Amino acid sequence: MAKKQRVIPRLKPVPYTLADLSTSLRQPQLVPATVINNGRSQIQLYSTPDLPNNKRGFKYVPCRPNPYLDSVLYSTTDLPPYGVRWSYFDRSPEMFVDQNMTFVGTQESDGWRSTRASVGIREGSWYIEYRIISGIGEMENGDNFERQTSELSRSVTPMHSNISIASHVRLGIARREASLEAPVGFDGYGYGIRDISCEKVHLSRRSEIKEGDNVYCNDDLKIGDVVGLLVELPDMKTQTKIASSMIDRKTLADPHLETDPGDGIGHSSTNQHSFIEKGIEREMIPIKYKSELFFEEYEYTSSKSMEHLLNPVTVFGERAIPDKEKFQPAKLPNSSITLFVNGKRKGVPFENLFAFLPPASEQRMARSASKPSSKKNREEESFIVDRDDGELGYYPMVSSFRGGVVEINASGEVWQKPEELKEKLAKGAVRPYGDRVKYKVVEEYVYDLVDNAVNKYLDRKEYALQ
């Protein structure tokens, strides 16, 4: 007698109503929060209190009813203004935006807060531009500011001598796990550029941008400066091979994979049931929040190994024991960030960025929900590879301090084209970040269709075995 196959019923979405079907998408309510005076103009910034924030291991994506998707019932969508912009959901509650969602900043009384853009980068060469709207500027009397050498003066905006009203910004890129309550570059998930002396920051360690003995950039980034970041990442085939090697070796550390690893992908039992074989896999539940529809998903959260990278100690009671071996995360070969200021090259502050595909990224909340266990069991949990939901990658991320404001270039045109990139931009070898949304829209259409096909298959299997 054949053994009866066990099928776990999937969680069915709640059917939408006619009112949901006829509701049009509109920009969320913008509530005036603060006015920033950068010495040249006043900038009105708003909060968005009627939206859920990404936190506690969950993230949110707008969705809408879709009669053509007869199993999942809903499809991903976006909110106006359409295109790349600062995220409605993926920012600190104390980070405020303008009406076009291209300016972001804090109140003059707030400390460091951060926000990420709405669309991430997974592979290829992309050029991101920021313009500093409020931050370091000239002194109010117009005289040039001569930098002091004391530690106190390094934290004071040149246009002010009072530390209580200093405004600063940091610019960079980061993964989804990077903290939004700290500046970009605070942890191992982000890479940042400081406005003071244009220093690079990673793992809370700042240093000059050098190539050989040459210091490329030691001037402050000031109001009006356009900062460009050329982000180069290897193709997904290369990244998948790195992830496959990590899975085969059951390690979260660098598997020491060569740049040209060949065309073989591991075939361990863990690998066969991971995203390597499954591809993009999403688990999204449609919910209503203040009468609006959103997908609720599991978010990627910081891992213990990456936390040890920032603070390499293990705490036993009141004792902190330094780690004997320092954790070395997997890196992406031929990846880099090249810095440009006002169209001029200022060196390569970062190379060999950390890998982001699982197991380098973890969804610990998803594990707890699928297999509840005691704290002891969780600590002893065997090597697990989480899903790739298509949202992993590096996102434009900026941080503001006491009234700092940054604008992102959301258009498909470059504000200030570096001479060495003109030909690559013309040929499409390097693309403006504003074009990334076109690819993102197509990706989400495909993911929606795949999700619906997979769930229809599971529905049939469940019905046949009842």
Automatic annotation (TrEMBL):
Q: Note the InterPro entries from the entry.
A: ASH2, B30.2/SPRY_sf, ConA-like_dom_sf
Molecular function (GO) terms for this protein are: transcription cis-regulatory region binding
The protein's matches in SUPFAM superfamilies, at most eight in alphabetical order, are given as: Concanavalin A-like lectins/glucanases
Can you cite an annotated GO cellular component? Set1C/COMPASS complex
Q: What is this protein called?
A: B30.2/SPRY domain-containing protein
